[in-house]
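Possible race condition, two jobs.
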Amino acid sequence: MITNAIKTTSNNVRRLHRRVLAVSLIGVVLAASGCTTVRTLSVQEAFPVSGRAHTSGPEVTVLPVQETLAESSESALFAADPTYLGKGMRALGMIVVLPYFGESDEFHSDVSRTAAIGSAALSRLNGQGIPAVYQLRGGVEQIEQLPADHLAMSLHLRKLKVDTEFDGVLPFIFVNAFMFKDTGAHAVLDCQLWQPGVAAPLWQGTVEGKHSAGNDIMVAGVAVSAAIDQCISKSGLLETRTRLANQRYSQLMASGREQGMNGDKGRALELYGQASGSALTTEQGAAAIRAMALLLPELAARPLLPEGARRLKVQAEVAVREKKFQDAADLYGESLRVVPWWAEGHFNMALVLGEIKNYDIAVREMGYYLQLAPDAPNARAAQDKIYEWERKAK
């Protein structure tokens, strides 16, 4: 009987081992092959770009983003797919030490990682009112082709990783459930700030951004934005841009006065217009407008709108008819950066700004109109509009 009991026990143990092994194998298959959710970062949503920055001053060119990622266990996946951002567990169940259930997330961008970094830089610069463009081709050697008062930003991606963060465990006798609650992102960039005509970078350094939140792929956008913001701040970009703009404004205003005294009124108007485009403060812009207003009556004829400005004028008028007043304001603003002496453009700009309740700037633009066209038939109505907006602005 003892022998039979031993045999029965042995058979039961073998059956239990087979069942555990079967369950474990099923679990390994489930954990490895199923229950993976692909989460994709929308770059347009994460890094919105207004399209037109409303401030004047030197433009910033973002050079094509380079990528050299640090070695990791996922290096092959990053190398094979330029949109890959990482993978992390969402939940994991185990019997003793063997997995029986797994749920994971795989993270991607809807464009390549380098394109996402370029879009982020453009978005963060435009968000601070800095005119910026993203250069799709070329490299540092292209800097010398930029205007002397412009700046260039060079970015080299070292790390952009999204993962899940361990939250806790639910213990049972033989079964444990591991939970991964938050999604975390880490971005590391080498950043350089360049100026045409200067052999070495004005600044260079490594910046990083981290962010974690709930089950949300947008953490990648927040982390990248934080790294870009560090690059803008640490490089002194804003201060350098202000210094260059002030230097250029002073030079243009002085040259305009010199050309006017020498009798070349057309060239003087052109230089004052460029000074208006370099102005960073309301006072500088107003001084350039006053200089143009004093010069215009001395011209034999008012200059015609160049074709590019006329195209923007027509498009702005279409936007007004469609009641897309913000678009119209953007288009008029772009045209006035080309032809700031255009009185009618300031008048129309003021009206569309009034429609979107931007009364302070509307008052300024209507004031420019009255300076540039003091004898206009609608001068009285324009001044009354200023009074109306001044009350609404309070």
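Job #2 (started ~2 s after job #1):
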Amino acid sequence: LTNKREEVVDQFVPKEMRDENLREIFCTEKVRAQNLGDILPDVVGELSTIPFLPDSRRVLVVHDLPELLAGGKKSAKARAAAAKGKAKETRRMTPLESFIAFVQRDLPSTNNILIFSTLIEYDRGAYFDEKGAFVQFLRESPLAEIPKPPKREQDPLFGLVDAMLDRDAVKCVTLFRSIYNPDSRARIFRKLLETARFLLQAKVLGKLQDSGASAIRIQAYLPEERTLNFLQQPDFVQKKIRAASARFQVRELMRSMDRLLEINENLVPLQNALYVPDVQLMLETFLMEFCAMRA
């Protein structure tokens, strides 16, 4: 995502002019994710400004706007209230209507550029909101260009997971090096932890089922949260993990969880830490150990 951002931004603003003409808004930087209504004043103010130097343009990059993803829209209650308000002639414009008016009426005359950058975490159930009003406007606007989101299978992180399940150390390290950067390491770590957790759960559940344990007893061993519960994952995920779990022993999966706990403690080190290990090296070493370990 970082490389793609650089590629797109380079088309509109040279590196030597970024301090003056590039601004970025991170919608998930605060405790509560900012939506279109929250950032609209900044968007309009920034893009209404004419650059000081001739033949230049201002570029605004908005990261992870909730309206671009399914589930990022208003609640059903809020949408119903907004729909009811449309019947009133004196009602105020919604943030989306104000944004559309600005893009259609004012933005073209400035020559400025607005870019939306969003990480779609398929593994967390997120997907591009093709039917949302915001995306529909962007798609229908002659001024907008929306690249088609990559398919889940094209995400190299899922290739890394498949290599882990196959215990293919060479492929693991190769894929890891191709996708690792400071911005992606937290997502990579979450996926490694999820894979090890689900393998361990599948292995333990298999032993419980072989012993004739009831479904109620089995469920008691699993967390309630869907993203942490192996049995609440899609069928194809369960099938893949169950098949791969035969290549692992419980004791080595337990060791993997211990190693991941150690890595997690260094992802965000304390300010007074005297020494901070190289997280990239720790993750790479973990992958090699994970693929090579034998009980």
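Residues 185-210 form the longest helix (26 residues).
Logs attached separately.
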